[in-house]
Amino acid sequence: MEKQILTPQVYWAQRHREIYLRVGLSDVKTPEISITRNALRFRARGHGAKGDNVYEFHLEFLEQVKSQPVYKVTERQVCITVQKEVSRWWDRLTKQEKRPVFLAPDFDRWLDESDAEMELNAKADKKINSVRMESRVPKDPFVNLKRGYLFMYNLVQFLGFSWIFVNMTVRLFVLGKDSFYDTFHTMADVVYFCQMLAVLEIIHPLIGLVKSGIFTSVLQVFGRNFILFVVLGCLEEMQNKAVVFFIFYSWSIIEIIRYPFYMLACMDTEWRYLTWLRYTIWIPLYLIGGGSEAIAVIQAIPIVNETGKFSIMLPYLGLSISFSLFLYAYLILSIIGLALNYRHLYKQRQRCLGQKKRKVH
């Protein structure tokens, strides 16, 4: 006995440039849709009038259409858009005069020819008005110069932190744990250069060169520079500590990913693997770097208490304010700052890598 072909209910509407088809099937997973010789073929498993089965239909269009249909699958239906080869109104959908029994008008999208003409004219007017409005807005004559500058800035920072990362990695493989204790003396000059240059990341949003939050840039740049120039640079006893290795290493890994991401952004280009790394690798590295910075501050407190360095004397009161009190305050504020930065970066990650809506194929 020949197997009966099940046909779904199909609703259609048209515009001058395209045809809309809506297939009344729910829970469709991967429909097979193709156009050959202006005949559309559809086959899919879904839930229709005859329950959960395989449904299919065939339509031969009245005139030429483009061979690449665009479709979107939802829980309740499959929506198909077919582009006409020539933009004009059709008297009917199919080549055969008699309408197939499974085909019906889609009254939700239905327009007659005059209404479609009005819609087309409205879109054309809107496009013309948009072009006119854009022509009134003055274009930035220095946009290429700004992009070139930002590209070079990010390139220089990338090269600097790459040098730090590569040298620290080589020294780690060659010297092992011994490389921990002279990290500052071998890497400090380049780290100084990169972190002094990083102050520009506060200036860039202030002058409108980039659109980013100033607060988070201030937190990161001044936090790192305080650790580098004050805690490590001014306290010689801290420069032979193993914690310096973990601070510099975590900084360099983060930046050799962050700066290439910004370099590509200057060229309006995105590499999705780099984007994923940019918004993912900070999760462990910020904890390692932030924890290492906190350990450095804790180790610096007894040194400051013993040497009295940076303590403020109040001769009229016969008192002195130890710099260690500032370090305690900084430790608390750095934990709060780390939490705020984590929140900011997590929101960025959700916005860039979060659950996206299903794309139209």
Can you walk me through this structure?
The chain has helices spanning 113-136, 143-175, 183-197, 200-206, 214-232, 243-266, 272-278, 282-307, 323-353; strands at 10-14, 18-23, 32-36, 39-48, 51-60, 70-73, 78-83, 103-105, 312-314, 319-321. The chain is of the alpha+beta class and 361 residues long. The protein has 2 domains: 10-111, Sandwich (Immunoglobulin-like); 142-354, no CATH class. The strands form 3 sheets. Strands 6-7-2-1-8 form a 5-stranded mixed sheet, with no helix packed on it. A hairpin with a 4-residue loop joins strand 9 (312-314) and strand 10. Helix 2 (143-175) packs antiparallel against helix 6 (243-266).
Question: Could you give a quick summary of the protein structure above?
Answer:
The protein is an alpha+beta fold and 361 residues long. It has helices at 113-136, 143-175, 183-197, 200-206, 214-232, 243-266, 272-278, 282-307, 323-353, and strands spanning 10-14, 18-23, 32-36, 39-48, 51-60, 70-73, 78-83, 103-105, 312-314, 319-321. The two termini are 37 Å apart.
